[in-house]
Design goal:
Elements: E1 2-4, E2 9-12, E3 22-26, E4 31-33, H1 34-43, H2 54-61, H3 69-87, H4 96-117, H5 122-131, H6 138-157, H7 163-175, H8 185-188, H9 196-202, H10 205-216, H11 225-234, H12 255-270, H13 281-289, H14 298-306, E5 319-320, E6 337-338, H15 348-352, H16 364-369
Antiparallel strand pairs: 1-4, 2-3, 5-6
Bound molecules: fe (ii) ion (2 copies).
């Protein structure tokens, strides 16, 4: 028993570190048995697939029962990072072709990710993210995590979301910080408090991203480029109209940009980085609850919390972040502040008294669009 291979397998037969020589050891179309695989494992350190068959390889992951979810996600993530790192490579000139290749490559990764995310709660996605290895460049890991949370939240918010819509949410998450490639890495990777001048430069990234995307996008069948462009442009708008660049308010901000903003915020304060300590899920959600209706969409946020399992509230519900907290930026210390007693109001959690009081599969998208 075995499975018919959808792609060729190669090994690197070169003994030189710098020169690679790939030899095909198993052809596409033949049945690979468990015995063959065992032999390969013993004989070769690493197996390879060709660039041109990467999509076939990624597509085969979802049906592969030998791999754990974490391993599958790791492979998908590595593939997305390869494209993102080429895009963010300061030595490479940004061209229409480069953007097109990145979107096509990332699309393959995101489409495979849809299978992994399907039916998963936010807590499942969070566990998966925690098990993945992370890289040194904040923007890559952050973008991939935001993509995963955005897909999970969007599928929860819109019960009948199509695969194409979930892929759009994922691609929007991956590319939301596109504009940062026009900003020096010293500023975007600076975990310390930014000077006013640097903060103004950073605040320009949604506009820079939109301009790059608008000028260089090429129509691609099945991809909603208009929505991705709005995610790039609107992910720092605040629900109460205090965000940037256009101070859009409420439902004038695209639904998927509001989804991305929640994913962005949650990842920034809960994912372990080399910089700051992270908050527990409970503390993070209590702090986010104080930003509901201000920084983030309260209905979507409730939807998000109903997808977190076994939540026990014991958190910092009298702590908050300012509306201008930037989740896209690394922080050495999270700028969490105590709310003075005179200003303390009951936050969304206390008002509701419990999570799960909102029917999760209510179609937010429809309700919002009405
Ligand atoms: Fe951003
Ligand atoms: Fe971000």
């Amino acid at each position: 028993m075995g499975s018919k291979m959808l792609f060729d397998l190669y090994v690197n037969s070169s003994t030189h570190d710098v020169r690679e020589h790939f030899v095909r050891i198993f052809p596409k179309g033949q049945v690979l048995t468990a015995y063959d695989l065992d032999i390969f494992r013993q004989k070769y350190h690493q197996l390879y697939v060709s660039e041109t068959q990467r999509d076939l390889y990624l597509a085969s992951l979802s049906s592969n029962t030998n791999l754990t979810e974490t391993k599958k996600t790791e492979v998908i993530k590595e593939s997305a990072i390869k494209y993102l790192s080429t895009l963010f490579d300061a030595k490479k000139q940004f061209t229409t072709e480069l953007l097109h290749d990145t979107i096509s490559g990332c699309r393959e990764s995101i489409e495979s990710m849809v299978h992994v995310i399907k039916g998963k709660d936010i807590s499942d996605v969070q566990k998966l993210i925690g098990d993945l290895s992370f890289h040194d460049f904040y923007t890559y890991d952050h973008s991939i995590n935001v993509a995963m949370y955005s897909m999970a939240l969007f599928q929860a918010a819109k019960g009948n979301a199509s695969k194409a819509e979930i892929v759009t949410a994922g691609l929007g998450g991956l590319l939301h910080d596109l504009g940062k490639l026009k900003i020096s890495t010293q500023i975007i990777n600076n975990p310390d408090k930014l000077s006013d001048k640097d903060f103004l430069i950073i605040k320009n990234h949604p506009r820079l991203g939109k301009e790059l995307f608008e000028k260089n996008k090429l129509a691609m069948s099945g991809i909603d480029l208009g929505t991705i462009e709005r995610i790039i442009f609107e992910h720092h708008e605040n629900f109460n109209g205090t965000g940037y660049p256009n101070q859009l308010e409420g439902e004038n901000i695209h639904l998927m940009a509001r989804v991305t903003a929640i994913a962005d915020f949650f990842d920034a304060i809960t994912t372990k980085r080399s910089y700051h300590e992270v908050l527990s899920t409970e503390d993070a959600l209590a702090i986010m609850a104080n930003s509901a209706s201000k920084k983030i969409d309260p209905v979507l946020f409730t939807m998000f919390t109903t997808r977190v399992k076994n939540l026990v509230l014991n958190g910092k519900n009298h702590f908050c972040v300012k509306d201008d907290f930037d989740p896209c930026q690394p922080h050495r210390v999270l700028p969490v502040e105590k709310i003075p007693p005179s200003k303390q109001e009951h936050n969304l959690f206390e008002k509701e008294n419990k999570f799960g009081s909102v029917k999760a599969d209510g179609d937010v998208a429809k309700k919002k669009a009405a």
